[in-house]
Amino acid sequence: MSGGEGTERPTGGRARAPQAGSGIPGLPPWADEDTPVFVISIAAEFSGMHAQTLRSYDRIGLVSPGRASGGGRRYSVRDIALLREVQRLSQEEGVNLAGIKRIIELEREVDQLTDRLAEVVEELGRAQSRLQTLADQPGRGSDLLPVRRTQSVVVWQPGRRRPSAEG
Q: Does the record bear Coiled coil in its keywords (predicted)?
């Protein structure tokens, strides 16, 4: 895979690392941080790694970029940030690749759970709002008084066994 796979090199002498937001070097104006636009050579330069390292990370499922219609790898700004984090964890923290992969998986799971929690909190707010609307309607307030529900617990105790007729 050569450097001429599509995306142009950022302008200026030395390539600067991409950053999320408007005006990302080499990022088309219609793209965001999740849009896969950078070819492997540019992603390698932005992340400070060799292209072969990026290929091996893709093979083991550590950082899996998008693919162009011809099959070439295309990295997003988020992918490049993840590559940098992989490098930091490896070099500065001494974490092996299996550990880094697990960390990434757990961070994704936390993100998904955080998103789901936000959805549930939103649903709860809507339900509370609907209940309040019903309670505020004339003539309906008495229908929506809280009802205290109790549950009784019955404890079964075995009685004495009756003598059998056979005994």
A: yes
Task: Give 97-106's long-range contacts (Cβ < 8 A, gap of 24+).
Answer: 97/60, 97/62, 100/62, 101/60, 101/61, 101/62, 104/62
Q: How would CATH label the architecture of 1-95?
A: Orthogonal Bundle (1.10)
Bigger pLDDT: 70 vs 29:
70
pTM of the model: 0.61
Closest CA to 101 of 41, 140, 69, 57: 57
| Interior/surface letters 119-131, b for 16+ CB within 10 angstroms, e for the rest | eeeeeeeeeeeee
> Residue ranges of the domains in the chain?
1-95, 100-134
